[in-house]
Amino acid sequence: MTDAPHPADAVGGDVEAALTQLLDVIGNARPMPLSSSVMINRDEVLELVEIALSRLPEELRAARWLLREREEFLAKVQREGDDILDAARGRAERMVQRTEVVRAAQHTARRLVEEAEAEARRLRHTTEDWCDQRLAKFEIILDRTMKTVQAGRARLHEPDLGVEPQAEPHLDDRVQELYDDEA
Q1: What distance in Å separates the CA atoms of residue 28 and residue 22, rounded to the nearest whole number?
Q2: Which backbone phi and psi does 55 adopt, to 5 degrees?
Q3: What is the arithmetic mean of pLDDT over 167-177?
């Protein structure tokens, strides 16, 4: 036997330590005279192989457990990533919808302002036409009133020829008649 420490005494006492010790035993084996073969202690080699084999299932279980943990972690991270992407897509969609809503609202507002301006123009023209018609009637009445006043003043200045003046309708009644005729 060599002076190598027992595999169970190795740090961690794991399969790797047992296999490393086995390599040391084979690597340090004494050569056979006149041959390329070496002489190793069969019991020592078998013991190291048994230790490695006995620990192998434990190592495999730990490796499988680590792989399963890794896969679960990756799946969890993938789910979280998918959730984040879904949330981002939803937010982007809401932003696009808001943009569309704003765009539609702006379009509606422009249309309403244009319609209101058109209605205001129409009402202004209608009002101006109505006012023009009323002023034209008033102008006719004023013109007739002026003629009546001028005629009345002219009669006042005529020489009195001894003729009794005809009874003239009162001026206010005459203006009212003119106004009523025009209405």
Answers
A1: 10
A2: -90, -15
A3: 62
